[in-house]
Amino acid sequence: MNGLFISFEGIDGAGKSTHIEHLAQAFRDQGREVCLTREPGGTPLAEQLRELVLHSAMDALTEALLIFAGRRDHLLQVIEPALARGAVVLCDRFTDASFAYQGAGRGFDLQLLGTLESWVQRTEAAPLRQPDLTVWFDLPPTIAAARLSGARAPDRFESQPEAFFSRVAGGYAARAAAEPARFARIDAAAEREAVALQIADVFAARGWLPAEEGAA
Ligand SMILES: Nc1ncnc2c1ncn2[C@@H]1O[C@H](COP(=O)(O)OP(=O)(O)OP(=O)(O)O)[C@@H](O)[C@H]1O
Ligand SMILES: Cc1cn([C@H]2C[C@H](O)[C@@H](COP(=O)(O)O)O2)c(=O)[nH]c1=O
Question: What residues does the Thymidylate kinase-like domain cover (predicted)?
Answer without folding.
Answer: 8-198
